Each structure stands twice: as structure tokens, then as C-alpha cells.
Amino acid sequence: MGSPDRESGTSANNWDWEKGKRTIVQSIAPKEEDLWQEEAYAAPDGESFAAVVRLEDESFTLRVNDGRWEETFEKVWYPRFAPDGRLTALVMADDEWTVAVDGEAWEERFAFAWATTFGPNGAIAASVQQDMRYACCLNGAPWENMYENAQDYCFSADGKKTAGVVQVKSLKQADLDGFRSGIFTVAVDGEAWDQSFMNVWTPVFDGRDNERVAAQARLNAYDYTIVVNGEPWAATYNCVWEPVFNPATGVLAAPVRQGGRWGVAFDAAMNWPASLYQCWGLQWSRDGKNLWAVVAPEYGKFTVACNNKPWAATFPVVTELALSPDGTRAAALACHANKDYKVVVDGKPWQGSWDMAWQPVFSPDGAHVAALVEKGGKKTYLVNNLPLDESFTEAWTPAFSPDSSSLLLRGVQNNALVRVVLPLKDIH
After folding, report:
1. Based on the structure, what is the number of domains in the chain?
2. SS3 content of the chain, % helix, strand, coil (to 5)
3. Torsions phi, psi of 328, nearest 5?
4. Would you state the pLDDT for residue 427?
């Protein structure tokens, strides 16, 4: 593996950006001495791949390029590379589960662990269960309090805190009155809010100080609202979606439904009028000046809007909204019936349609866009509306160099893991 800069979080600065193609591993095919090998995953810098392997003695470990982790386990699954290049997996030893990072398992063990996720500043978390109680485990340290149910975890902007939806009251079978009384709330670092609600979803931190947490809440059979640190907004709505804090001002925005139409409320006051057939996936620009969303101005016709101004082009489905670093440009995927995918940038669909496509990526300077696409079982890349000549049987998200001059491709060709660096000036 390469040597990413784990302290600053800007690992791409230390990657090899020399132009050209390199073969990293001659063959990712299973080795003869292994009983089997599972799906391969490439590291962010393209210098290695990992896959779960089962050894002759029936134990499991991770293959990394042509070597293996020294440690073996009773089971291994869900290998994933962290953004800083560390390799993680969920592992079982002595019938207990935990997370292993670069081959070293966390000391804490659980009846089960799943859903490894990565946060800012190298944070790694997983969902865990012990004695039928659930919690979040951050960097190997589980919450002190565990609950009958816990889910929808999120990180604070500094990666030091976690929050999640938890069940704070027991519920008997078919106990509708108990459910209506409110059994769910949000726990921050395992400490539950005093207030509980019929349902709660998708907590999110205010990234300015990481002291406020907001979430969607259902108050009763008909009314929904947003709650902040346990306190509901004064207004209620027919429905709501995930809220987002303005990173510059702290204003809390959320899609809300009133009178059969959707709009956006800022701190409980309507800002985008309720005129849309749908509105979700809010994203603020880093400076807090632009608010983007996926919207449907007409029934069944979706597009992207910035500050309540939709793109002119509409599509049956729009997903995977991505913003440029300065928040002035946007890209997304459009499709019809889960096929015929198109990459749409600044409201204009790129040429060609694809069997599958993945979220577009902007260069650091915001001037370039790349996306991974697939057709007929072959994957390739689109860059600034141009398909590249390179094709792969498997490939992963492209990455731009920090100076926005080059593009890194990671893929499998003829069963070999290859790494390609293309200067953007050479793409015509």
C-alpha cells in the first residue's frame, strides 16, 4: 500500500501522480493454496487491493495484493478501505465480532458487529450488539449505554462524536398505544435526549461547534417536524425529510410538506414555498450561500435546484447529487426505470446512456467532472463529457490530483489490477 497522509487527511497529496499506467498486481485471481476468494476492493490510491480469503485450515483473513494479513480469524467480511488508506474488516474470533484495522483487531468484542463507516479525521465506527442491546462503537470504544434498538448513526464534523436513533422504551407485541406514546429519540455519544417521539430518523450535527443535533421526527399519526437537541420546531408538517445545518450560519434547513406540496423551511419558517411535488437530498455549499436539492417541479419530473431555481431539464429519476468544492456547480445521475443512466452536469445531460453509472466527481478547482459508467459488462470513465479509451472488467471511483491537473483511474484489465494517471490536458 501507499503511505497516505493520515494526519492532515489530504492523502492524495502523497499519492504517485506520475503520468502513465502501472500494473500493481499481475493477477487478482484466487491463489491455488486458498480455498476461495471473495470480491476485490481497491485502495483509494490504487496501490493495492484487498479480498477476503479462506485458507486451507478453514480460517479467514484478507489478501492484500500478493500477500495476506498475518492474523487469521474464524470469519472475515465487509473489507473496506478508509479514506486515509487503512484497510478495515469485520472479523470474528472466539465466536465474538469486532473490527480489524490493518490486521489489528479492536480490543472490545461483541456478539455481532456490522456496517463499518468512516468519519472525519480518521474516525472509524461500527454498529454493535451485545446481549441483545445495541450501540455505536467509535474507534474501538462503544457507547457506555446500549439500547433495545439503535441505528442511523452519524459523525460530528471533527469525528469525535457520534449520534444515533435509539429506542428508550420497551414495547410489547401489538402495543399500539405504547408505540404512539413515543419510544424513540436520539442519543449523542450514547446519552439519550429526555424527549421521545413516535419515530425519529437521520440525526445530523451542526458542524460549526458539534453541539447541536437535529433529526426528523414523527409526533403522532399525522404530524411531522424537525427536532433540535430534543426540542421540536414550533411548526408541524404533513411530512419532512433529512435536515441540514448551514455550515456558515447554523441555519437549519429541511424539506417539508404542506398542503400536498413540498418546500424548504429554514428554522421552521418557510423559505422555499411549498410548490414542489418532491424535494430531498439538501446540500449546502461550504460558504453557506447556495442550497441545492433534488426536486420535482411537476409530477414524475425530477431535476436539481439551487436556491429554489430548478434546472430546465427534467428526468424520470435523479440521484447521486454532487457539488463542486465551491458549491457553485452541481452534477447528478438521471435514469429511467433503473436503466439508461445519464450523467447530468449543470443541468445538461452528457452524451450517451449507460446500464449503470456512479456519482460524479468534481476536481478540486471545480473545473472538471469525471464519472464511472458501465455498459455491456464493461466499465469506463467519462471526463468532461468525453468517454475514455480505457475499459475495465471492474473499476472504482476516479480521483483528481490535488492541483486538478490529472485523473487517477483504478481498475482490472485482463485480471490484472492496474493504476492509470492521465493528465487532463491529454484527454481530447
Report:
1. 2
2. 5, 50, 45
3. -95, -10
4. 87
pLDDT digits (tens, 9 = 90+) for 274-326: 999 999 999 999 999 999 999 999 999 999 999 999 999 999 999 999 999 99
Residue 377 belongs to some domain of the structure: yes
Examine residue 105 and state whether it is found in any structural domain, yes or no: yes
Residue 14: helix, strand or coil by DSSP? helix
Q: Domain for residue 211, yes or no?
A: no
Query: Is position 109 within any domain?
Result: yes
Per-residue pLDDT tens over the stretch 196-238: 999 999 999 999 999 999 999 999 999 999 999 999 999 999 9
- How many other C-beta atoms lie within 10 A of the C-beta of residue 415? 12
Last residue of a domain, one of 120, 152, 180: 120
Other C-beta atoms closer than 10 Å to the C-beta of 299 total: 7
Contact 15, 408 (CB under 8 A): yes
The three three-digit cell numbers of residue 42, written as one number? 481497491
What is the separation of C-alpha 68 from the centre of its chain, rounded to a whole number of angstroms? 28
C-alpha torsion 154→158→160→165, nearest 10: -20
- In which domain, by residue range, is 101 found? 1-120
End residue of a domain, out of 76, 101, 120: 120
Mapping DSSP to helix (H, G, I), strand (E, B) and coil, where does residue 261 land? strand
List the beta bridge partners of residue 369. Answer: 362
Between CA 69 and CA 60 the distance in angstroms is 10
8 Å CB contact between 323 and 285: yes
What are φ and ψ of residue 180, in 5° steps? -65, -25
CA distances for 144 relative to 45, 137, 164, angstroms: 36, 10, 14
Q: Which amino acid is at 135?
A: A
CATH code where residue 377 lies: 2.120.10.30
Which one-letter DSSP state was computed for residue 46?
S
Assigned C-alpha cell, 20: 502513465
The widest CA-to-CA distance across the chain, in whole angstroms, is 66
- Residues, the chain, total? 428
> Phi, psi (5° rounding) for residue 177?
-65, -40
Q: How far apart are alpha carbons 52 and 66 in whole angstroms? A: 13
The label of the residue with cell 473499476 reads 395
- Which of 367-391 are b and which e, b meaning 16 or more Cβ less than 10 Å from the residue's Cβ? ebbbbbbbbeeebbbbbeeebbebb
What is the pTM for the complete model shown? 0.93
Provide the grid cell at 37.
476468494
**Cα 205–207–208 angle (5° rounding)?**
130
Residue 71 CA to residue 120 CA, distance in Å, equals: 27
| Contact present, 253 and 282 (Cβ < 8 Å) | yes
